[in-house]
Specification:
single chain, 8-stranded parallel β-sheet, 575 residues, 16 strands, alpha/beta, Glucose Oxidase, domain 1, globular, 3 domains
Length: 575
Amino acid sequence: MNRAGSLQGLVVHSGIFIGRAKYQEKREAQIPSRKIKDTELEAEISSLQNSLNHIESELNNILDNQNLTETERDILQSHLLILRDPEIEKELLHTIESLKYSAAAAVHAVYSKICNQFKEMENEYFLERLDDYKDVSRRIIDFILNHGTSEPTIWTDQDIAILEDISPSQVSSYARAGLKAYCCVNGSYNSHASILSRALGLISLVSVENLMEQIEEGQELILDAQEGLLILSPSPEALAFYRKKAAELERRNQLLEVLSSKPSTTADGTKLDLMLNIELPEELDLVLKLNPDGIGLFRTEFLYLDRNSLPTEHEQYLVYKKLAESLAPKPITIRTFDLGGDKLSHLIPGQTEMNPYLGSRGIRFSLSHPQLFETQIRAILRASVHGNIRIMFPMIVDAQDFLQAKTFVKDLMKMMDTESISYNPSVELGAMVEIPSAAIMADELAQVCDFLSIGTNDLVQYTLATDRNNDQVADYYVQHHPAVLKLISCCIEASTIHQKSLSVCGEMASIPRYIPLLLGMGIRAFSINPHQYLSAKQLLCNASQSILELMQGFDPCQNREETEKLLVRLSQESN
């Protein structure tokens, strides 16, 4: 297929859509730049308070809508928290009273300052939350300047929205208006707008350079949100090709959706546990739709990164409780936060580390900051009475390392007993195997923990001394390297001997090439990325005894060439 006349972007929600470009009408707010007079102070403060009260009421009215998805509800609630952040309100009033800014100018200045601070942190998570602050700021300014009454853009189900930036509120309004697809100059995969786009099924492409310069209003487009392409003014041949491809994809998606209600077993009846990896509560809608056997990895870093203060015990408890109740009795594995001082330097003073990846992070950081760790563990334990919660510790080195964390939890349980706080005393405690030493010492580790989960991303990185985000050494990042497979084998053997559950929660569990290999090696629990889940489940449910037969006599220590030949044969057998 000739792809001349196409633009490249980042896929937010996969799919194929053929339509015509329609620009989002952009209203540039004319914010007064002059300083206000003392006699105008009261009116500007009143204008600010009226706008905050109005938008708070507006958001609450939307939240009362029973048809909202959980994702929409969670994002709107986060916007309410931003809107009524006492520190931001205090700064807004100071800017009006002391600097003599108008209400609109104060909002623009204060929120711009916050967004610039996020950008300077060079932290991906903060960058992904910029849209939320911009969205709230835009709402306030629009109300102050009476832009809220202007006519909205009218969308049809044949339009592809073309815009520079997109906010969560825009995504919601697009879905309600029947829009099916959009392309955006800016954006990231994990922004709230992107998460909402996936939850609402909007086919979408972001981070498309030169989008506004290349696209004309009404131009015919093919949005290939599988390959990350936007094809401009396609030829008749291209249109025919993509119409056929879109029809095939629709049939495939319908077949895959049927899988969500089927049990997780191979073709020859072998029972599997197919779980999901998630990192934000807003993904709950998608989790419930996919109907997995549980959550094999719930990342908790978002609780610490998207804020100017540390999360309280109650805040965390509410997050964990909601997940536990929604999936009960299925298991939810909560990984304690996997961060180091480099990511929390704005909240916790500490020494700068030359190499944070080999420094104080994960369980090391948690144990060296007991108050922080205590807050999280207490919140998890309190939530454990509402469902089937398991606790997993990241960056475990060996059994002794795990026992330190386990002792910390048991001591907290005793403390909670004296306070008459309910929790599940049988909550399972597990170790994430991502450091080679933990895999080598898996036999000892399996004797003291309740379960193991292999994080292949870091295991490969640390085993082969290869930064997986460094293109210069990309050829060295070989997930099927014999050394890596040998370490996985150590974990399988130890978990079998000591009858402890073992899962793989790293990328290998989501990659079709490696799934049959892991199955053949003895893995029976996979924790998969949401958007590969149904494809992975189809592959595993179709797996037959022949895969195990191909694996007979396989030595994970053999050379890479033999392993690669085996991967080809396994792939052929799986298809």
